[in-house]
Specification:
Elements (H helix, E strand, L loop, with lengths): L1 E4 L1 H7 L10 E14 L15 E7 L4 E4 L11 E8 L7 E11 L10 E12 L6 E8 L3 E13 L13 E6 L36 E5 L16
Parallel strand pairs: 10-11
Antiparallel strand pairs: 1-11, 2-5, 2-9, 3-4, 3-6, 6-7, 8-9
Length: about 230
């Protein structure tokens, strides 16, 4: 005899809504870049008669990082300048990258404090599927110009989300009469990021339901007990 443990299992194990830690990180790494400008030096703060081309990158409005000069206030390449963590599979399908080229006559250790001949552009780039990376090129031109190569990565995993749907119920195997099946203390399964979409919701208990199935032996017990724990 086969029994599908549906909401009976879920009320014991899964109606205890868990405090979860984020599982997936969306990151952007600027791999390399180049830049130039037609503007000359015109400030007492810059090197005499020097041309000081710089460029900046801004990811998702998170703030400008200045390249490529060495020294305080600048970031060396390659540089992972953006990390955003997500709890559930809802990270954006695209991310905005802004690139700006300019000549900078600002004070020492204060990039972007004396910009001139500024050229900038913002574009949306598709994010990769979970566990993958995608690399893009981007450029801006005019009185100042810059080109960059960068990589967007979605790393991590969604624990417990595969059996969110009934058709993906995890098969726990055969339950022997008078015996045990599995060990809830091992935390092999969970309901992180699960939902209750289009599922029964008896007494409002089902906040994050997931699905399991098992098969009894040829001589099944009269009573089956389901045991689970909330964490923490």
């Amino acid at each position: 005899m086969t029994s599908r443990i549906l909401q009976v299992f879920i009320f014991t194990v899964l109606f205890l809504k868990l405090d979860i830690n984020a599982q997936v990180t969306l990151s952007v790494r600027v791999n390399n870049g180049s830049n130039s400008t037609t503007c000359g030096d015109g400030s007492v703060f810059g090197s005499p008669l020097a041309v000081e081309p710089q460029f900046g990158v801004n990811v998702a409005g998170d703030g400008w990082f200045s390249y490529p000069n060495s020294g305080c206030g600048f970031s060396s390449l390659p540089n992972t300048q953006y990390n955003q963590v997500y709890n559930c599979p809802n990270y954006p399908g695209s991310i905005q990258i802004c690139l700006e080229a300019y000549e900078d006559d600002g004070a020492v250790c204060l990039p972007r404090s004396g910009m001139s001949c500024r050229e900038n552009v913002c574009q949306n780039f598709a994010t990769p599927t979970l566990g993958a990376s995608v690399t893009y090129n981007m450029s801006v031109g005019g009185s100042s110009s810059a080109s960059i190569n960068f990589t967007i990565t979605a790393s991590g995993s969604w624990p417990g989300n595969g059996n969110d749907l009934m058709c993906n119920a995890i098969n726990l195997g055969t339950l022997p009469s008078g015996g045990n099946l599995g060990n809830p203390g091992l935390s092999n399964y969970n309901n992180f990021c699960a939902s209750n979409v289009s599922e029964p919701n008896p007494n409002g208990w089902n906040d994050q339901g997931v699905w399991f199935q098992f098969t009894t032996s040829s001589n099944p017990s009269a009573i089956v007990e389901i045991e689970g724990y909330n964490d923490p």
